Amino acid sequence: MSTFGSVSIDRPDLELRFVASGSPRTQAAEITGVVRVTPEQLLEDGTTMVLSEGSLVLIFGISPFRIRGRITTVLDLLLQRMSREGGAALAISAAPGARQPFPPAIVDRAGRLGIALLTTSAPAECWQGVHEEIQQSRLRFAERRAAQLGSLVQELPAHLADSRAMQRIADWLARVLDCQVLVSEPERVLAASPATAAEQLAQAIIRQSVGGVRPEIPSGPHTQLVSLAPQSAASTVLAVARKTPFDEEDLRLLRHAAKLLGLVGQAHSEYRAASGASQAARSAAFELLVDGEVDKARRVMANLAPGLLEPETARVFVVETQPARRELAERRCRTSVGHQALVVPAPRDDRRILIVQPIRSGEDTGVDVSEELTRLVGVLGPPSSLGGSGIYSITLLANALHEAVTAQRFAAFQPDSVALSVHGSDLVSLLPQAEAQHWAHRLLMPLMRGQTQWESMRETLPAALAYPHTVAARRLRLHRNTVMRRAARAAELLRMDFATVNDRIAVALAMELVTQREASASPYLTGTEPPSLAEILAAPQVQAWAQTLVRPAQADRRDLVSTALAWLTFDTHIEPAARALGLSEVTVRSHLRALEGYIQRDLATLAGVRDLQFSLHVVTGQPDLHSARPDSRRLLTLQS
């Protein structure tokens, strides 16, 4: 780009001089071309010559002593026209050291109109080709600037979630303008190029924050600050600094980059807001599912993922990783399985990600999802781990979550850091399936007479056994009296007392085996006598599981096992257990909390109590599982 300053330096032979001392702004003004005119042409044609914005009008052959009368009037008209059409300067040829060539009236008029007055002592031959040189220079500059703007556009992100876009634009700006670049908000740095720019530009940012945010204000030697969103009073600022001054074209390029940075920042902000709202809705849906509010969860997800929660069964996976890597792991989980699962960060554990995979009837049980998550954990590496539940009714997602958490804790000690229920990580999957199914079907036979009766029991009994009747009714969206009536009828048909822990656990286990695990079980001989529950629990893999679970508690100096046996004997009532042990209720509760920590089970849930009871029975032979074997004589009586 040609300016008065650059022409004076590059072409000293033109001997251009300002009539008045040229200001830095005047010297930086752009020259777009030279219009040569003689006094005769000026007087004959008046001011009809073709002018373009930024033109330098050069008059040869006029003596400073002749600038009076009509010539003064014509020059005045020429200055007015130049002002209207953007002319940059008026120059006349004059001998070196000549006194003031322009009359005071012309000097005053040019000053008011902002047009520079110059003289040149170079002969006319020196000015031959200057106009063409300026045009060539402008063409080269335009091509270079077009290439720069093209490369700037290439830095724009293809996706709004591209967090590196702002840094790439900052790097581009630092490279093109040979400067330091900082994009920042009051509380954080968004991009810096080079990395040390934040330290170098800190003072400029501080001065601006004290003086208020104004777009495009110089804040020190060769420093520029630009607000990225002045219309919205946003506090995001672009700061640049270098050793040499910025010219007008540099500032123009800076404004282009600032506009793109502002658009990228706005897109990121809006994307984060939309993504945050979506994630909040997904987290709310997960909480509703855990609370048994399935219909509400489906309404929440209706627009975000239509049909995702429509199936009646689901699995839960738990991925645990380092807190600093959870956000990365969550994004990868959402990318790999988000189209067929609900992925949310655990609300009360900054290491975990929770995944709910709804499973439609007749579909594959989600091997692809488990394989994707297994691959992801392998990529994340230690100490990341994965646990997964079996298939549960979607109304019992809390149980599935508990099982997945338990599996994940076991996974931390596995070579591949993965423990999935379908691979035998929970008690029910460790049972010999054919024998367990035989036992469960014989135990539940009185409930399975009649399709209507069985459907109602299948719907109600798992929740009625696991929760107080009021909670079960809310989860099942049934009246409390309906739940109580069905539970009482089941106890009557089975000749059991659901007030006892033994009977509740036995029937709940049988219901889980029949309703959730039957598809994966091996065939069993229906004409033979079923084994007892104690015989099923004698399987070697169950014994290994039980010893692993109980061993840490046995090593405690307190007799936690005796406390647990007494608590189970008195059907999980604290007061009679404390009396029998001769301990205070506070001590009994303290022992139970310690047990929960050792066995990694929630003893407020039926599944947690079941695992405690079965593991103690396998290891110590107590408590007695007196209701675990179906009574053949009772069944014959009921059949008759």
Description:
This protein is α+β, with helices and mostly antiparallel strands. Helix content is 52%, strand content 12%. It is built from 26 helices and 16 strands. Helix 3 (39-45) links the parallel strand 2 and strand 3 (55-59). Helix 4 packs parallel to helix 5 and helix 22 (560-569) crosses helix 25. The longest helix has 43 residues, at 248-290. The protein is rod-shaped and about 130 Å long. It starts with a helix and ends with a helix.
Helix/strand layout:
Layout: H1 4-10, E1 16-18, H2 24-27, E2 33-37, H3 39-45, E3 55-59, H4 70-85, E4 89-93, H5 104-113, E5 116-120, H6 130-154, H7 165-177, E6 180-185, E7 188-193, H8 197-211, E8 217-218, E9 223-227, E10 237-241, H9 248-290, H10 294-301, E11 313-320, H11 326-337, E12 342-345, E13 352-359, H12 367-380, E14 385-388, E15 392-393, H13 397-411, E16 418-420, H14 427-430, H15 433-444, H16 451-466, H17 469-476, H18 480-494, H19 501-516, H20 533-536, H21 540-554, H22 560-569, H23 574-581, H24 585-599, H25 606-620, H26 632-639
Parallel strand pairs: 2-3, 3-4, 4-5, 14-16
Antiparallel strand pairs: 1-5, 6-7, 6-10, 8-9, 9-10, 11-13, 11-14, 11-15, 12-13
Helix pairs in contact: 4-5, 6-9, 7-9, 9-10, 11-12, 15-19, 16-17, 16-18, 16-19, 17-18, 21-24, 21-25, 22-23, 22-24, 22-25, 23-24
